[in-house]
Amino acid sequence: MADxxxxxxTSSGLKSHxxxxxLVIWMVLLTLSLGLSAGMGANEVVTxxxxxxxxxxxxxxxILLPSFTLAAALSRQNIASKAAGRTVALASPVAGAGxxxxxxxxxxxxxxxxxxxxxxxxGAYAGFKLLYPAGPLIVAAGLGATGIEPAILLxxxxxxxLPVWAAGVIWARFxxxxxxxxxxxxxxxxxxxxLRAFTxxxxxxxxxxxxxxxxxxxxxxxxxxxxxxxxxxxxxxxxLLQTSSHERRxxxxxxxxxxxxxxxxxxxxxxxxxxxxGLLSLDRLVPQGDGxxxxxxxxxxxxxxxxxxxxxxxxxxxxxxxxxxxxxxxxVNEIAAVFAICLGSFIAILPNDxxxxxxxxxxxxxxxxxGRAIGILTGGAVxxxxxxxxxxxxxxxxxx
Length: 400
Hints:
With about 400 residues, the protein is an all-alpha fold. The chain has helices spanning about 25-35, 40-55, 55-75, 85-100, 100-115, 115-130, 135-145, 150-175, 190-195, 200-215, 220-225, 230-240, 245-280, 290-310, 310-330, 335-345, 355-360, 370-400.
């Protein structure tokens, strides 16, 4: 997740011609300008903005607060001091999803990754984008896709993440040389420590699967635990219990800060989507039918958001409410739409993304050429996105 305080100031010929404004300010200005330029009255624009802004905030608050609490707790588990290279690389996709941030996951795992640093980098990146409860859950909530079974979203993300991560690893093997000659063998103690650290995710997955099998029981409290939000809250509580008592408040404070900033972006994006929907007849602009063209359009639209913004999390927060009316009007499969957006957000790992600098200064510290480093990271992300999109479109063609 890009953070302006972490990202060095690079040559910005393009930015010099555009005001340097936060994404949320751009979304508000575009929303107001769009409504007023289309002839809407002042009160009408404000009313539309108010309705759109609050449309999904409660949904997101219940998802993001426990997600970021879980992330903060896991980041304090000191995983790297106990694990070894191969195990770290294998755990990186789960860490990327669980920490709701590839930066945090890579920073936590990298010290023990050894010669598997690039595997870990692309694994954390893929996990954050494609595995529940990170990208897919955030995008599904933004689209208003409440009919998707969480267990199906979990399974589809896992199946898609495998070839996508493998594509990144293969790319890294061809594009780079190992920067660590030796990695200690994994021990049983290493694996037990990782298993304990990731127990909250196993509990969450178990609750979601149980919910898909059992369905509604009529007992409100139990049914809530089987929902994505209830399973997330349960996992967050368990992670907090595994954290030192003096660090628990810091985990909650971190979750509140991260949720607050994203909720503002989500509200502005939702308002923009509401005004846009009121002005355009989207059912005439988007293709109908199997949705392949719509999926490609969603993929491309997300790429544009990611290239402009840099931050993966801000991209998820902003694109989903804007894309929601397109998905609704096209009739495209909602699960496919979720993952088309997630895959579009892979492109690209550039210097306006803090993840670039984190991996650049660690796994690629020996690379003297900035252009080559950009090529390695951006090339890997593009390969991952295209492989994932090919698998997604093939799946849609085979199982419409």
